[in-house]
Design a protein that fits this description.
The structure holds 3 protein chains of 3 kinds. Chain A is an alpha/beta fold. Helix content of chain A is 43%, strand content 17%. By secondary structure, chain B is mainly alpha-helical. Classes of the chains: A alpha/beta, B mainly alpha, C mainly alpha.
């Protein structure tokens, strides 16, 4: 046992590490862009719009003391929402290059998290205590609203976010530009009910909040006297075949299957249904807003044209030619290098949230403090983001569902096209009714 | 032949129990000083972000301690410790919502119930060894994870499961009255963890520790020497399940909200990786492993470096450890530093009993 | 209790799922027979190969080239790992060797998420030309890809069993798995035999990765950790019998899907592989201690 052991392992490990570094360095540029290249733009040439409209003093760079803002977004294997705050940062970059806010540039601190509650709470404290942010804009996280809402309430931050968890809509300190899983599922179920289906099967991914989400469609179905079957699936789905068969069996030939999943999971289920030859065994298929991407339309193919109806919580970018939509695409093209998804609902949400923030900041007189900035945010009323069916209001309410009117889209020739224009979500959902009452929009 | 934690048979025999001498007293003093530093100085030096991260480190140091005892001391590899932690957290959360019992009592109950469950599950599994044992713990962890995903963690609802799926306002899991703030709760966690470490130390220094050492050296020989191997292995399972259950209770209070997606089966693989890297044999190794698991990600997240690099690091680390430094960083770094020191002082190298490990 | 007609389509889908588990499970065990290593990185290697194939197809390369690269990647990575980390660990416990492959799994998993990030709203999919055709069994359609998946599983089982039992190279592999040193003294070119075993397993991983990416999902997490579920089948066969692994996998798949229409159990059906493996192991070990040490392999 005294001989010196030959250690080939060390060299092997170093070699392995070097190979890894080489692959990573080489691969870094390639795959990210290649995957986004597909869906990005049926690039409209109307990007001749000048981006300088975003600011008050075109061409003048802002050089004052920066206004710090913060955002928290989920970024983990399989789920990445960083496009939303990244797009907000792109909008702020545009504003900073064109006058800033009264000469002050905006600095957005973006914290990412991996759905770890301790980490999410820590991120919030980092933003407040270390980065001294005066406002929070662009939060998009599966858990953040639940974990941090009491912290924001205690400190007086009124968050502008893209909501997912229940607390993003049910608390006083958060207002979302999107509708979130529950109200978007409401929209999809509502469309199916409007087509007079005899039964609804609502299937969603088994992530936190399924009961809260399911309560919306349940209320809508009850109001329409239509039976509804509630299902959940563990994600990631490893056996889509059994899921598809179960849904179709439960729905019956005159029923509807409504899905609430992220695009990869929804794609897998729909493709399984197609491979099994089941897509025509129900009256229609529906999906909440995550499915509203051209990429899904292309991946699904022609069998699903006018068969799948997707709730769209934002104005379809390809079909709209307003100045704000053109500005959005121009800013994305010029400043949005870190937005990997290109044109789509994620970057639209980031654009809208940033717009709202800038609008609020421009109304602040005097110093930019937590108190002054958040008071301005609360005062935002009926603001036209160019991305929604109606004006967006924050207001001084105990709950916020400012986006409650939506479109329905359907795939057609590899693109998502509008099947139904702006339709309010039914007040049969008690939360929607409650919001309309406090907001006075009846 | 070396086992997973890399101690030769001869080396293990050379560490009999000694009465505490001067060196032991100095060591105890150093540990006390470090503990005082962790309790009082650290919270002042760190921002809240890092205090939250350190609380996680403290919680997971108890988990890695448990896995280290199983892997390093007894020679049993368990790939199901994350599931045990989840059970402990579940029990604690349920009790905290359903009762107004004081926190220490809840932690104790969580530990005991987890211990009972862990022992019951460990009982039949003890007929398996080595690879089979590791894989069956993975299977059991997978089963528990699926159950937890379907039943969810308690969130203030009623009934046995205590889960209300439709609520729009999920209540936070409470913390002890004396430790509501983050720095205070961090100190609370350090105290609880220190008690767990003491408990394990007490085991190692007395009869169970000797029995475990004998079992890991050679189970047939231990049997022949009259040691009831089955009983001591079960005791190890019970001890580890207890401390992991208590850690789960502390975790519940730390995070305020528990979700099944935070306890995936594959985390048990990462846990094994860091325990191997930190050193399964040494108690310091448990702390190093916890720092790798919870502090490094917080650091990298702050610097904007993707967490994937850590996953890669852990993979490389496992390979490195199994090949060249089986006793992990806790053993390797002091040795390397000592070697460096000798080099600087130009003293001749003293051959150590455990050097030149054969394959 | 639902009617028979309700169960019928699930039998078909259950067999398809069984084929998936079989493909994955047999791949992990096949190497064990030849080198004593349970190749837990099987899923990760296949997943990365599939992602590379996807990137190539996306960049405009012809399909056959992408598939070829995927298979070659599987072979190359596995061979490299086997040649570098195989010999130093050869005399260690099978547990140590298996944990080492976990190290490889983590490295590949981290790399995959770095290189193929989850973009907002994007999802990747691999479609093989055999997806579009098929035949009907009762109410549901079975695609040719599923048939190929099943056939591949059967093929691997048959070929490896025959190869290991009846050819010289195969016998050499089995001897090496038992005791490397003695086999070396018998004049068997140990390094070359080892290389052949690792390369063979790697090629299988590449092929399986492509099929599984089509049959299950092109998602790094799903494909990498599919091995955990398919390991159940391998465990039921006590890691010793490739045929046993295949049959156990089919059974697991069938039971998993047959539980779907039963309301009370449906959400728990993902437990099927784990519960079956745990029960099987405990039953099989009731007469004594089960160990996979060197002396027994």
């Amino acid at each position: 046992m005294g001989t010196r052991k030959h250690r080939p392992g060390v060299r092997a490990v170093v070699a392995l590490a070097a190979v890894i570094a080489a692959i990573a360095a080489a691969g870094c540029s390639s795959s990210g862009s290649s995957s986004s290249g597909s869906s990005a733009s049926a690039a409209p040439s109307s990007a001749a719009v000048s981006t300088s409209q975003c600011g008050t003093k075109p061409g003048v760079k802002a050089t004052g003391t920066p206004i710090p803002l913060g955002a928290i977004a989920t970024n983990q294997p399989g789920t990445s929402f960083t496009d939303i705050p990244n797009m907000a940062a792109a909008y702020f970059a545009c504003v900073n290059a064109n006058g800033g806010i009264n000469g002050h540039p905006i600095k957005l601190y973006i914290e990412t998290e991996q759905t770890n509650p301790a980490q999410i709470a820590a991120d919030a404290k980092q933003l407040v205590q270390t980065d001294h942010v005066v406002g929070i804009v662009g939060n998009t996280s599966i858990l953040e609203c639940t974990i941090d809402h009491s912290y924001w309430e205690k400190l007086g931050y009124f968050v502008v976010d893209s909501g997912i968890a229940p607390e993003c809509y049910s608390t006083a300190n958060s207002a979302a530009v999107n509708m979130g899983p529950r109200y978007s599922s409401d929209g999809a179920v509502q469309y199916a009910l409007s087509q007079h289906v005899s039964k609804v099967v609502f299937d969603q991914s088994n992530v936190p909040g399924t009961g809260y989400i399911a309560a919306g469609p349940a209320a809508l179905a009850a109001a329409a006297h239509t039976p509804i079957v509630q299902l959940t699936e563990n994600v990631p789905i490893s056996d889509a075949n059994s899921v598809a068969i179960k849904e179709v069996n439960d729905a019956g030939p005159n029923g509807a299957v409504i899905l609430n999943f992220t695009p990869p999971e929804a794609l897998v289920i729909l493709q399984a249904a197609q491979k099994l030859g089941l897509e025509d065994h129900v009256k229609l298929w529906g999906c909440s807003t995550p499915c509203n991407t051209d990429f899904l339309a292309k991946a699904l193919g022609p069998k699903w044209d006018h068969k799948l109806f997707v709730n769209a919580e934002l104005t379809p970018p390809d079909a709209t030619n307003t100045p704000k939509m053109a500005l959005y695409k121009a800013i994305l093209a010029q400043y949005g290098k870190s937005v990997s998804g290109g044109v789509g609902s994620f970057s639209q949400m980031g654009f809208a949230e940033a717009e709202i923030m800038v609008h609020a900041l421009e109304s602040v007189t005097g110093a930019y403090t937590v108190a002054s900035v958040n008071a301005a945010i609360k005062n935002v009323s009926n603001f036209d983001t160019g991305m929604l069916c109606q004006g967006w209001t924050y207001g001084n309410f105990p709950m916020h569902i400012p986006n409650n009117v939506d479109y329905t889209t359907t795939p057609n020739n590899g693109q998502m096209v509008t099947a139904q224009g702006c339709t309010p979500i039914s007040s049969a959902d008690p939360q929607i009714a409650a919001y309309r009452k406090v907001a006075g929009t009846g | 032949m070396l086992d997973l934690a890399g101690r030769t048979a001869a080396a293990r025999q050379r560490s009999p129990l000694r009465r505490p001498g001067r060196r032991a007293l100095i060591r105890a003093g150093v540990i006390a000083a470090l503990l005082a530093f962790a309790l009082f100085a650290l919270p002042q030096l760190l921002s809240l972000y890092y205090i939250d991260a350190m609380t996680q480190v403290v919680v997971y140091s108890v988990v890695t301690l448990g896995l280290g005892v199983l892997v390093g001391r007894v020679g049993l590899v368990s790939l199901g410790q994350v599931a045990v932690l989840a059970i402990g957290a579940w029990v604690a959360a349920r009790l905290l919502f359903a009762t107004t019992q004081p926190y220490p009592l809840v932690l104790l109950e969580a530990g005991v119930i987890t211990m009972v469950l862990g022992t019951l599950i460990g009982l039949p599994a003890l007929r398996l060894r080595g690879l089979y044992l590791a894989l069956i713990t993975l299977m059991l962890a997978g089963a528990i994870t699926v159950v937890l995903t379907t039943t969810n963690f308690p969130n203030g609802g009623r009934g046995f499961l205590g889960y209300d799926g439709a609520t729009v306002h999920i209540p936070a899991i409470r913390r002890p009255a004396i430790a509501e703030s983050d720095p205070a709760y961090y100190r609370y966690a350090v105290v609880v963890a220190a008690l767990m470490f003491l408990l394990v130390l007490a085991h190692i220094r007395t009869r169970p520790g000797r029995a475990w050492a004998a079992i890991r050296q050679s189970e047939p020989a231990a049997l022949a020497a009259g040691i009831n191997t089955w009983f001591y292995k079960l005791w190890a399972f019970a001890l580890v399940s207890f401390i992991t259950g208590v850690a789960g209770g502390v975790l519940a209070g730390a995070v305020h909200y528990l979700y099944s997606i935070n306890f995936p089966t594959q985390d048990s693989i990462t846990l094994l990786a860091v325990v191997l890297m930190g050193g399964a044999y040494s108690l310091w190794g448990a702390i190093i492993a916890a720092l790798l698991l919870q502090f490094l990600p917080a650091l990298l997240n702050n610097w904007g470096v993707s967490a994937d690099w850590l996953t890669i690091l852990f993979g490389v680390g496992v390979l490195q450890v199994l090949l060249t430094a089986p006793r992990g960083l806790a053993d390797q770094v002091p040795k390397d530093l000592a070697r460096l020191g000798r080099l600087l002082r130009r003293r001749p190298r003293r051959p150590s009993a455990t050097e030149g490990d054969p394959a | 209790m639902p009617s028979w007609q309700l169960f019928e389509p699930f039998i078909v889908s259950g067999l398809a799922l069984g084929g998936v588990y079989a493909l994955s499970g047999v791949g992990t065990v096949v190497l064990y027979q030849a080198t004593g290593v349970v190749y837990l990185a099987f899923g990760a290697v296949g997943a990365m190969g599939a992602l590379i194939a996807w990137s190539l197809t996306n960049a405009g390369a012809p399909d056959w080239l992408a598939w070829l690269v995927c298979v070659l990647f599987g072979g190359a990575v596995t061979l490299a790992y086997g040649m570098v980390f195989g010999p130093p660990l050869a005399r260690r416990d099978p547990l140590v060797k298996a944990v080492a492959t976990l190290g490889l799994t983590l490295v590949l998993f981290g790399l995959m998420d770095l290189l193929w990030t989850a973009n907002g709203g994007q999802s990747r999919a691999i479609t093989l030309p055999t997806d579009n055709g098929g035949f009907m069994i009762g109410q549901v359609q079975v695609t040719w890809t599923q048939v190929i998946g099943l056939a591949a599983g059967v093929g691997i089982v048959v070929v490896t069993t025959v190869f290991l039992r009846f050819t010289k190279l195969g016998t050499a592999m089995r001897a090496m798995a038992n005791d490397r040193e003695i086999t070396a003294t018998l004049g068997v070119p140990v390094r070359r035999v080892e290389a052949a075993a690792w390369l063979g397993c790697g090629v299988i991983a590449g092929v399986a990765g492509l099929l599984l990416a089509d049959l299950v999902a092109l998602d790094a997490t799903t494909l990498t950790f599919l091995v955990i579920s398919s390991l159940a089948a391998a465990l039921i066969a006590r890691l010793r019998s490739i045929v046993g692994t295949f049959l156990a996998a089919m059974a697991i798949g069938l039971i998993h899907d047959l539980l779907t229409p039963i309301q009370s159990l449906s959400n728990f059906r993902d437990m099927t592989p784990f519960v079956l493996a745990a029960v099987a192991l405990l039953v099989l070990s009731r007469h004594g201690v089960m160990t996979a040490s060197r002396e027994e392999a």
